[in-house]
């Protein structure tokens, strides 16, 4: 057998082989036990000794050629078969789906954002009851009975004299009664006043902060508020602090930010009134503190440009904030 | 308080632009609520805080404006009218309730007309014109802050008593309203009875009108404590009570009566009696404060000289004794009581915005209330399983609660806003049903909502978590994966429990508002923590709603998960077996699983139900239930014969306990 001739024949046959079957039979014909390669190998054993190395090398090269050609051809055929199969399995990737996307109530989102901000500043979250006594809601906060300041709070009462808290400030008193300074707490929660119009609902949410220790001063309060405003209102609005009146703080402050159409009230704050400190057994000569409180609805309305507060409690699911 | 700028500037020597004035007022704590340009004037409306009773007067506001601008206050002087009228009156005044009572009898000589400038001032203040006599009293009040009252002197007696009545009395006020007053209402009375409610309103029996020829003009200082709350008890607030409740300048009564007398002389011409006067010596309030205290509370370093100058501008008298400033408070500042009030005055005049700010370096730490974390975790889980959070009012309609059969132990509000918000919610379910109804009527076809909030009964209050699920099957889209059912909602709830690492059990139950066949009590050990089920078909029918599923659990009964060590997963392969049993359909799957676990040995890792079948081929009292059981040991590969033994035990156990037969 002539190696060169066999090689030529193989290449011709290989060219014709275009299916898995023909390639496999070609493989058997050449590489099988009784195949052409094994006859060539038996020829090799009869060849003169000096020609053996060169012939052996040529036969091995021929073997590699056959193996490689058939393997790569088979691979190509398999690949194109797979390609065809996969392309037949194709789906419409654009069909619309309607996933059940959950959502937080916007008030929760804002309350959470504010709580997290202050938590990161070392404030500890505190909770208090929504049904309160006259003492915690008013008297302990330096709002005696018949004081005109009580007119600022249209209170819901129960027959036993208890009431729905009109602000989150009673949590200040409860916390100060339980823990001694240094105190740095934040109390978010529901509050209630008999009032309902475009900017008032009978239930709303507040978040209140309180810091009490030695040497706490007005400059600390100002800085705390300025930093918060900078973080919450992304466009860094101008802030105005102006005198106000709350029976439980002195001096008392109202904080405004500059909006497009003038100043917008965002929160009340002040230095804890000495009577409040005395009411929980702290000496106002030794301790001082500040407190601040804001309406979460107000902050929510500012953030999402909502003009009617009542919308927040309709729970219309077409009005859902994603995020 | 509403007024014209021109009226205010009668008392200020100097001028300030409109814009600066408005800004300054707000920055002084006298918040400008509205302002309006009118002809050559500016109408200003202030929203005053309850502490600034002194600013319910033009003079009071002018004082603050002068102090902050370093301008001089023009305090007018009135000459006393010639007192030729020799009328007599005797007085008996309760001086603890009325520190000063002044009166003057004025015989009006002609019929007067209310002067134009008085009309303008009253109109600005939104005080209606009555007649010239009354208009003048109101005008003087707006200027001085001192409420005056004019009685028709012919209608009252010779004796004037300022006293608390000894018994309840019925009376009719100037505005025509009738009241019965209790013993805590301070009155002005004569020999025949009550002629005015002190500091609130006069009585109809002594009213002045167009025919009045002689008046008794009262200028008194009633103590806030004797007035406070009384007007509100009668259901209104008068211009007088508004001022007296907040405190009126104890030294201004004579000035005010002279002011009014001059106006009566100008408007009517008149003969004047002497000014009768009953008063207690006024003791000015004194407060001592040091520079150190001021600086320590404001975080400042303000020179003492500056503090003194500023307080003097506010009419405080200041004496410097070593480091201590001894201050005598002006009588018009009823609100200044303590050192901190002085600090506010200093801050106010310097301007809050001009004070320094400084970072607080305090870190206080104590453990957070765990309820916040639990609430947050609940919200996160339900939002992530496709629920929308809602927030409802904490008060609900008691008749709705009753209709749902929820709880008859709810707390009633004494003064609800409306009858459909008359009790505190004993459950979140009424709110969720309202939300569903609202959205369903607006076309919602898919609905998953939840709420976390406090609920209340007469005995206790707790934090509740409740959810509601609805899906309109006819609106199902091509993907069709959503199924409204008890199990869908339970799956979300199971996910929640699994995240909290608790394993409550569901036990068939019957609660008023749920379908008796498709509802379960949720129990932790022996404690019931809530329920889940399809809304009772009768309620559903009454509300004209489709089928919905809801749950409610008491969050206070669930603890936050403890941190456990993470166990190494077993390295050796496990064995899986499927077993089908034929058993009475009344046997809950959960009970069956419990028994399989008992008989399955310690290496039984999981039991799941892969099929439940009732119907053809099985008698009507039975069901076929197929379990997939998985065993795995930690130390070695389990031998088949070991597992076979467990399976045999389980089959025997199930036969014994449930009379269950293995299906081949």
Please summarize what this structure is.
Chain A has about 325 residues and is α+β, with helices and mostly antiparallel strands. In chain A, about 40% of the residues lie in helices and about 20% in strands.
Main traits of this protein?
heterodimer, A: 323 residues, alpha+beta, BirA Bifunctional Protein, domain 2, 2 domains, seven-stranded mixed sheet, two-stranded antiparallel ribbon, B: 664 residues, Phenylalanyl-tRNA Synthetase, Chain B, domain 1, Phenylalanyl-tRNA Synthetase, Chain B, domain 3, 5 domains, five-stranded mixed sheet
What does this protein structure show overall?
The complex is a heterodimer of chains A (323) and B (664). Chain A is of the alpha+beta class and 323 residues long. Chain A folds into two domains: 3-88; 106-313, Bira Bifunctional Protein, Domain 2 (BirA Bifunctional Protein, domain 2), CATH 3.30.930. In chain A, 41% of the residues lie in helices and 20% in strands. Chain A has ten helices and nine strands. In chain A, the strands form two sheets. Chain A has a seven-stranded mixed beta sheet, sandwiched between helices. In chain A, helix 3 (36-46) runs antiparallel to helix 4 (52-88). Chain A is rod-shaped, with a radius of gyration of 42 Å. Chain B is α+β, with helices and mostly antiparallel strands and 664 residues long. Chain B folds into five domains: 2-73, Phenylalanyl-tRNA Synthetase, Chain B, domain 1; 90-279, 3-Layer(bba) Sandwich (Phenylalanyl-tRNA Synthetase, Chain B, domain 3), CATH 3.50.40; 286-349, Phenylalanyl-tRNA Synthetase, Chain B, domain 1, CATH 3.30.56.10; 370-474 and 483-557, 2-Layer Sandwich (BirA Bifunctional Protein, domain 2), CATH 3.30.930; 575-662, Ferrodoxin-fold anticodon-binding domain (Alpha-Beta Plaits, 2-Layer Sandwich), CATH 3.30.70.380. Chain B is built from 19 helices and 32 strands. In chain B, helix 4 packs across helix 5 (132-144). The longest helix of chain B has 19 residues, at 640-658. Chain B starts with a strand and ends with a strand. Chains A and B meet through helix 5, strand 1, strand 4, strand 5 and helix 8 of A and helix 10, helix 12, helix 13, strand 20 and helix 15 of B.
């Amino acid at each position: 057998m002539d190696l060169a001739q066999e090689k030529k024949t193989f290449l011709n046959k290989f060219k014709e082989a275009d299916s898995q079957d023909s390639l496999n039979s070609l493989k058997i014909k050449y590489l099988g036990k009784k195949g052409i390669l094994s006859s060539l190998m038996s020829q090799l054993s009869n060849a003169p000794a000096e020609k053996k190395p060169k012939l052996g090398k040529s036969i091995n090269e021929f073997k590699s050629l056959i193996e490689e050609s058939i393997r790569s051809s088979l691979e190509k055929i398999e690949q194109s078969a797979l390609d065809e199969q996969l392309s037949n399995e194709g789906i419409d990737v654009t069909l619309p789906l309607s996933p059940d996307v959950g959502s937080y109530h916007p008030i929760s989102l804002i309350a959470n954002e504010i709580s997290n901000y202050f938590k990161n500043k070392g404030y500890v979250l505190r909770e208090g009851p929504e049904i309160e006594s006259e003492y915690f809601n008013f008297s302990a906060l330096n709002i005696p009975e018949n004081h005109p300041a009580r007119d600022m709070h249209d209170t819901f009462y129960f027959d036993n004299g208890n009431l729905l808290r009109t602000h989150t400030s009673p949590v200040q008193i409860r916390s100060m009664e339980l823990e001694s300074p240094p105190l740095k707490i934040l109390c978010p929660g529901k509050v209630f006043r008999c009032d309902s119009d475009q900017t008032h609902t009978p239930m709303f949410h507040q978040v209140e902060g309180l810091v009490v220790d030695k040497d706490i001063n007005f400059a600390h309060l100002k800085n705390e508020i300025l930093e918060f405003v900078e973080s919450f209102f992304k466009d860094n609005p101008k802030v105005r602090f102006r005198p106000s009146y709350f029976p439980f703080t002195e001096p008392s402050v109202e904080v405004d930010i500059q909006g497009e159409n003038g100043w917008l009230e965002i929160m009340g704050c002040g230095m804890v009134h000495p009577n409040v400190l005395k009411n929980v057994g702290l000496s106002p000569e030794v301790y001082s503190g500040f407190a601040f409180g804001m309406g979460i609805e107000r902050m929510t309305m500012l953030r999402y440009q909502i003009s009617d507060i009542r919308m927040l409690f309709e729970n219309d699911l077409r009005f859902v904030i994603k995020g | 308080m509403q007024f014209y700028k021109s009226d205010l500037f009668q008392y200020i020597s100097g001028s300030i632009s409109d814009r600066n004035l408005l800004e300054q007022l707000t920055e002084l704590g006298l918040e400008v609520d509205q302002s309006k340009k009118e002809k050559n004037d500016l109408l200003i409306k202030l929203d005053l805080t309850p502490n600034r009773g002194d600013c319910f007067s033009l003079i009071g506001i002018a004082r603050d404006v002068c102090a902050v601008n370093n301008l001089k206050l023009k305090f007018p002087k009135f000459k006393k009218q010639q007192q030729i009228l020799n009328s007599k009156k005797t007085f008996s005044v309760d001086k603890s309730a009325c520190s000063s009572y002044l009166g003057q009898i004025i015989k009006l000589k002609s019929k007067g007309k209310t002067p134009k400038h008085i009309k303008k001032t009253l109109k600005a203040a939104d005080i209606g014109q009555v007649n010239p006599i009354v208009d003048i009293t109101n005008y003087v009040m707006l200027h001085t802050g001192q409420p005056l009252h004019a009685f028709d002197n012919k209608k009252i007696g010779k004796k004037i008593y300022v006293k608390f009545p000894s018994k309840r009395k019925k009376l009719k006020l100037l505005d025509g309203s009738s009241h019965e007053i209790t013993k805590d209402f301070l009155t002005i009375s004569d020999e025949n009875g009550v002629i005015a409610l002190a500091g609130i309103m006069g009585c109809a029996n002594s009213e002045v009108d167009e025919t009045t020829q002689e008046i008794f003009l009262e200028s008194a200082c009633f103590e806030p404590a004797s007035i406070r709350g009384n007007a509100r008890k009668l259901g209104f607030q008068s211009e007088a009570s508004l001022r007296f409740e907040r405190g009126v300048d104890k030294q201004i009564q004579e000035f005010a009566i002279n002011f009014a007398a001059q106006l009566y002389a100008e408007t009517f011409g008149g003969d004047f009696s002497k000014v009768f006067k009953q008063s207690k010596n006024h003791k000015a309030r004194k407060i001592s404060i040091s520079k150190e205290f001021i600086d320590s509370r404001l975080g400042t370093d303000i020179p003492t000289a500056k503090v003194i100058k500023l307080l003097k501008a506010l009419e405080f008298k200041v004496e410097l004794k070593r480091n201590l400033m001894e201050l005598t408070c002006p009588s018009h500042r009823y609100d200044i009581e303590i050192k901190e009030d002085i600090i506010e005055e200093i801050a106010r005049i310097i301007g809050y915005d001009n004070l320094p700010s400084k970072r607080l370096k305090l870190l206080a730490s104590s453990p957070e209330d765990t309820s916040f974390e639990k609430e947050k975790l609940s919200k996160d889980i339900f939002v992530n399983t496709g629920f929308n959070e809602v927030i409802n009012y904490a008060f609900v309609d008691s008749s709705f609660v009753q209709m749902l059969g929820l709880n008859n132990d709810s707390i009633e509000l004494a003064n609800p806003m409306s009858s459909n918000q008359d009790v505190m919610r004993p459950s979140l379910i009424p709110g969720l049903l309202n939300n569903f109804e609202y959205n369903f009527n607006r076309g919602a076809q898919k609905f998953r909502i939840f709420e976390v909030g406090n609920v209340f009964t007469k005995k206790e209050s707790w934090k509740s978590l409740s959810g509601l699920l609805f899906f309109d099957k006819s609106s199902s889209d091509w993907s069709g994966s959503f199924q409204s059912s008890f199990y869908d909602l339970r799956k979300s709830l199971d996910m929640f429990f699994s995240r909290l690492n608790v394993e409550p059990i569901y036990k068939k139950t019957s609660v008023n508002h749920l379908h008796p066949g498709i509802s379960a009590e949720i129990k932790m050990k022996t404690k019931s923590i809530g329920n889940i089920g399809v809304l009772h078909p009768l309620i559903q029918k009454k509300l004209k709603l489709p089928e919905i599923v809801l749950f409610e659990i008491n969050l206070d009964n669930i603890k936050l998960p403890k941190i456990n060590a993470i166990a190494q997963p077993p390295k050796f392969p496990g064995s899986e077996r499927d077993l089908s049993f034929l058993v009475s359909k009344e046997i809950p799957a959960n009970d069956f699983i419990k028994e399989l676990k008992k008989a399955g040995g310690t290496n039984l890792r999981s039991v799941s139900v892969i099929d439940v079948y009732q119907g053809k081929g099985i008698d009507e009292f039975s069901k076929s239930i197929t379990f997939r059981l998985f065993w795995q040991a930690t130390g070695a590969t389990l031998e088949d014969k070991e597992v076979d033994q467990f399976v045999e035990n389980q089959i025997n156990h199930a036969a014994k306990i449930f009379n269950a037969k293995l299906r081949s």
